Q: What sequence folds into this?
């Protein structure tokens, strides 16, 4: 019998209108948006549904907005997974899905996380760039020799790695990668996420995570920082602390889930970014998307088929 993984997107998947269809259908999804508004003391739901884009793109808004839209869809969908995972911010959605942390606590945590990450590095000091068509070893060597902080921070799929750090060092690493035949695209982001420059954000977030009640997850959560499952509350909390200033090992996480018996990935939340990455990691991996209630029937059929095989 095949295992089913629910996977949740991270920052960059946001779009104005996300979660609106689920909210309009009422029930569980509406309750999630209402809970987010109450927890934050503002109308996050209006920001999700109406924007504007510029406000939704602010890190302190983006993170709770994507979490809320993802969990609203999950609750409306009503199905359960054998294992869960999320890309960066999406790991919080995964923990809510697994019952590790309450949604109301998670949405406050990611609001703080977004603010701390934004404030960790002054605007213009850091940079990020997407690298395509270069081996890990080439990227890692270029960063090592960049003469400053430049680090691989997202191992997204074979041939797609994101680097981040000090702007000058990232530029030098990018030149070396291009000279070795890789393609580098600078990213328009507000901070060098998941680099060691995020250590101040990690240090500010850690006490909040320690104060938050965590429970042992109901299903294994494959965490970004170790590309391995956690099954205990303390390990889940520790991984979320370390995640802030360390690489997202998404390709290794997906490969590990497949090795452990996952045959179907259900991406829940806005966009299809993770499905595209999973296809590049393993072309044989089955995947479906849940972005709106119209997607529920096909996803449920895929889950039944995976578990029957």
A:
């Amino acid at each position: 019998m095949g295992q089913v993984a629910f996977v949740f997107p991270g920052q960059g998947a946001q779009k104005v209108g996300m979660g609106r269809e689920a909210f309009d259908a009422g029930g569980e999804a509406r309750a999630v948006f209402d809970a987010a508004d109450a927890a934050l003391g503002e109308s996050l739901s209006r920001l999700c549904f109406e924007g504007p884009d510029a406000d939704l793109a602010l890190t302190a808004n983006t993170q709770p907005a994507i979490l809320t839209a993802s969990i609203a869809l999950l609750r409306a969908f009503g199905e359960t997974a054998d294992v869960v995972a999320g890309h960066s911010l999406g790991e919080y959605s995964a923990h809510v899905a697994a019952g590790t942390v309450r949604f109301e606590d998670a949405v406050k945590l990611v609001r703080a996380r977004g603010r701390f990450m934004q404030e960790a590095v002054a605007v213009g000091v850091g940079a990020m760039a997407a690298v395509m068509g270069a081996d890990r070893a080439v990227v890692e060597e270029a960063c090592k020799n960049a003469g400053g902080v430049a680090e691989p921070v997202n191992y997204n799929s074979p041939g797609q790695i994101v680097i981040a750090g000090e702007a000058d060092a990232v530029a030098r690493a990018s030149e070396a990668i291009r000279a070795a035949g890789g393609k580098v695209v600078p990213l328009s982001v507000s901070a060098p996420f998941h680099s060691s420059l995020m250590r101040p954000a990690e240090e500010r977030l850690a006490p909040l995570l320690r104060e938050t009640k965590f429970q042992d997850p109901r299903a294994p959560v494959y965490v970004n920082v170790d590309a391995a499952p956690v099954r205990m509350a303390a390990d889940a909390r520790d991984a979320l602390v370390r995640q802030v200033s360390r690489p997202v090992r998404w390709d290794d996480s997906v490969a590990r889930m497949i090795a452990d018996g996952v045959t179907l990935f259900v991406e829940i939340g806005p966009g299809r970014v993770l499905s595209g990455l999973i296809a590049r990691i393993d072309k044989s991996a089955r995947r479906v998307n849940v972005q709106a209630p119209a997607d529920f029937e096909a996803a449920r059929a895929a889950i039944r088929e995976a578990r029957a095989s």
Observations:
- The radius of gyration is 19 Å.
